[in-house]
Specification:
The protein is an all-alpha fold. The protein contains ten helices and no strands. The longest helix is centred in the middle third of the chain and has 18 residues.
Length: 175
């Protein structure tokens, strides 16, 4: 059972996080954690805010010392994604990234696609091209991955005409 105070703090946390007030949201999550050191919501909140503030090492250390306190499989998945993202930002060569991403079982299709993209990116950054191709094929996300790269990387490097040709090609591939 959640107390009125915990409910108020949780709502205040969410409102601040949505507005990008991560310092304030972090203070709130830490306050919640001080009241209940096993609060999965508070542990997730602290991890998320530290990540969003670019404090990847602090986030990773916090996760590593608190993840075993969490019983909820859904919250453990969310924290594992933050953990993998922290590692990406600290050392994208870390083999822990692959281990974390492969042990996350995800039912949500959109979230599953993001995890698959992270895994492909991990393989590419570590020159494991065969693994990247195998993951792309097994996940059936080749076109989506190429579109993501086109939108976020190539768009800035290509002139408008070339980019339009690429977009048309990708559109044809989807049919």
């Amino acid at each position: 059972m959640v107390s009125e105070r915990e409910q108020f703090l949780a709502e205040d946390f969410v409102n601040n996080a949505k507005k990008g007030n991560y310092e304030r949201a972090l203070d709130i999550a830490e306050d919640m954690l001080a009241s209940n050191s096993k609060s999965a919501f508070a542990i997730l909140g602290v991890s998320y805010c530290l990540y969003m503030l670019g404090r990847f090492r602090d986030s990773l250390e916090f996760i590593n010392s608190n993840i075993n306190k969490i019983d909820s499989p859904e919250i453990r998945k969310a924290i594992s994604l933050i953990q993998a993202s922290d590692l990406f930002n600290l050392d994208y060569h870390s083999s822990e990234i692959e281990q974390i991403l492969k042990r996350i079982e995800i039912n949500d299709a959109e979230l599953k696609k993001k995890v698959e993209f992270l895994l492909v990116l991990y393989y590419l950054l570590n020159h494991r091209y065969d693994d990247a191709v195998n993951e792309l094929e097994s996940a059936k996300i080749k076109i989506e991955f190429i579109e993501l790269i086109a939108e976020n990387v190539l768009k800035e490097k290509m002139n408008n005409d070339s980019y339009k040709v690429l977009r048309e090609f990708l559109k044809e591939q989807r049919v």
